[in-house]
Design a protein that fits this description.
TIM Barrel, two-stranded antiparallel ribbon, 12 helices, alpha/beta
Length: about 450
């Protein structure tokens, strides 16, 4: 459907279609009351900002920029604090500095933040010691604690999620535009434990080079505004359709609908059914949209998703995030890229090297090996290099904390370390040291691509 033909009534057409991964709310009337209250709340982002991100992603699709998208696997309400948000932003900024300076490429910074409060699950229930309860679906739905009361879906959590998203976005805007993200602070982001790690020492060397470059620019009388703040965009999986619908507004400038819960929303690999509710809903909003593509995706289905979500072939509208696994990326990705390239559709190709590389350690902890993450990214670059197309970005789960959830890295974590600080609410995340290891590896791959 063309953007020009969208009407407000189209925004509810998804209700007639199958909707997977939705909570089994015990009181539908309460859900209606909560979403009506949400619909009266101020927007979390603005349509003009979404359009600006669309312009940035159009540059990515042309091979002129690179996406760094990352943050928590599943945000928690207790994580909406100044310290926690700052630490995640520090990690994102450090990774972006490495990529920008070492790879000489503009970096589009997108946080997996301020809305990632819902998670799809493999099974609707979880059993422990003979007790079966609803699965944990993220703090917007129910609690992590394994009790009947905690696991009961509660629509009031949707309002709490909105409020925490507002707090997080307010902090992000303050940090990124209030002087903290000034490139002259590049050394300050590398304090504490990171400076003692191999990745931290390597980063300090790069920071010294940046300092010298800034001093040279200052001596020449150059002090561009771009050095004193950064553009930062929010994103999350658009999983809970009642929440997303309640936060969709008609833009006063254009008369078009935007989902103002985030700048970019993505459709997960479990909810990308062409005839399902998620694709139907998101094809009507004008935000930039992404789709996760797992190893079962076919080239024909990929083209059908493109036709459904971006029929006008609008640059910057659609990103394809592949999550194939290190052992599958070199086999599955080429046919996808070839088919889309032949179709001449402007998409941004982004690699999620996390979700296809998860395994269970002997201790029972779900984890990932950094070497597998790096190998999938390397395979992603190899395929694009062979086909002459642009590897447009990475999508990673990380935290600014010194957690022990993924194994490997220059400051190596082994499987016996996992129990020490395993704090994730869902999937394992890279810590800051491992994130910097990844950033340096990606920068080197990108330099080799050009």
């Amino acid at each position: 459907m063309s953007a020009s033909s969208i009407t407000p009534g189209d925004l509810d057409s998804w209700r007639a279609l199958p909707s997977t991964q939705q909570p089994d709310w015990p009181d539908p009337a309460r859900v209606s009351a909560v979403t009506a209250e949400l619909a009266e709340q101020p927007p979390l982002v603005f349509a003009g900002e979404c359009d600006q991100l669309k312009d940035r992603l159009a540059a990515v699709s042309r091979g002129e920029a690179f996406v760094l998208q990352g943050g928590d696997c599943a945000e928690t309400f207790s994580g909406s604090t100044a310290d926690a948000v700052r630490d995640k932003l520090e990690t994102l900024l450090q990774m972006a500095v490495v990529l920008t300076y070492a790879a000489s490429v503009p970096v589009v910074k997108i946080g997996r933040m301020a809305g990632q409060f819902a998670k799809p699950r493999s099974r609707p229930t979880e059993s422990r010691d003979g007790v079966e309860l609803p699965a944990y679906r993220g703090e917007a739905v129910n609690g992590f604690e394994f009790t009947a009361e905690s696991r009961r879906p509660d629509p009031a959590r949707l309002l709490h999620a909105y409020n925490c998203a507002a707090i997080t976005l307010n902090l992000c805007r303050a940090f990124t535009n209030g002087g903290y993200a000034d490139l002259h602070e590049v050394h300050a982001w590398n304090q504490d434990f990171v400076a003692q790690s191999p990745a931290g020492r390597r980063y300090e060397q790069l920071a010294g080079e940046i300092d010298r470059a800034l001093s040279f620019m200052k001596a020449c009388g150059a002090d561009p505004e771009e050095l004193h703040g950064v553009e930062f965009y929010s994103s999350h999986e658009g999983l809970l359709l009642e929440y997303e619908r309640a936060l969709t507004r008609i833009d006063s400038r254009t008369g078009m609908p935007y989902d103002v819960s985030a700048h970019l929303l993505w459709i997960g690999d479990r909810t990308r059914d062409l005839d399902g509710a998620h694709v139907e809903f998101f094809r009507h909003v004008r935000n930039p949209i992404a789709v996760k593509l797992g190893p079962t995706i076919s080239p024909d289905t990929t083209l059908s998703l493109i036709e459904r979500l971006n029929p006008d072939r609008e640059p910057g509208r659609l990103a394809l995030i592949t999550r194939l696994g290190a052992d599958r990326v070199r086999d599955v990705l080429p046919s996808l890229v070839e088919k889309v390239t032949q179709h001449d559709s402007p998409v941004a190709w982004i690699c999620d090297p996390m979700h296809g590389n998860t395994f269970e350690a002997p201790s029972g902890h779900k984890t990932r090996r950094l070497e597998h993450v790096l190998d999938e990214v390397a395979g992603f670059f190899e395929v694009h290099r062979a086909l002459g197309t642009h590897p447009g970005g990475i999508h990673v789960e990380f935290t600014g904390d010194n957690v022990t959830e993924c194994v490997g890295g220059g400051h190596e974590i082994v499987e016996d370390d996992l129990h020490r600080r395993y704090e994730t609410a869902c999937d394992p995340r890279l810590n800051r040291r491992q994130s910097l290891d990844l950033a340096f590896a990606v920068a080197e791959l990108y330099r080799g691509q050009r």
